[in-house]
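Quick log. Single chain, no ligands specified.
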Amino acid sequence: MQLNKKIYWTLIAGIALFGLSLSSCGDDMDQLGALKLNFKLNYQGQPLVMTPNQVDFNGIPFKVSRVSFFISEMKLSGTEGQVDLKEVDYINLTDSHADLAAAQKGYDYLINDVPIGQYNTISFNLGLTDEMNAKAPSDYSAGSILADQSEYCADWGSYIYIKIEGLMDFDGDGIFNDGITMHLGSNDAMVAKQYDHAITIKDKEETQLNFTLDLYKVFDDGSTVYDFEKYPRTHTLDLIEQIKFVAQGVGRELQLN
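-> predicted structure:
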């Protein structure tokens, strides 16, 4: 009878320890934080406000009405490995820059449930992978970001990775009737971005990364100036060099501060 009691209490102790072990593992697995990416549009170093506000592009009055882009394969990397954050999503900065107060605040893109840890790189594509772009919106489920027909160009067989739209006044008569439509797509327009930056994700806390995009520098890199009067719209792949120039400009000027 005494032996049975010893066995009984040994079993009870073992079960308790096992329960503590499970609880401890669960606590580790629940250690998650959040990552906020803040995007601000600038123009020559100043907050960019959408139309009816106007800016000057080398003597040409310019009203910007839209800036948006796809991101894909967003990841964090560190000494302990890699964390996939987003397979694909769409960032539209238009409404968040409707007035000066909004432009100064920028657009917040929040990612929850990020494993805690020390990371040294964040990477993503401006645009889509070749595999994603090989499909059409009808190939994706209705709830997918990629099911949106308005972000796809059937003539190209490609999604529109980046949109920059607005109006210019080429002749300076005060009438903004020269449409600017930078629609950038095709596999060659995708820009892979990698930022080396110390990033700490803490349990139940929010870490913020601040990005800026100077739209003026997208079109004027200091040596080459985009010719809006000659190429106000990039609606055909005959203009792939112009498409690549602007897409690469967005990639170059999207800075992590």
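The longest strand covers residues 60-78.
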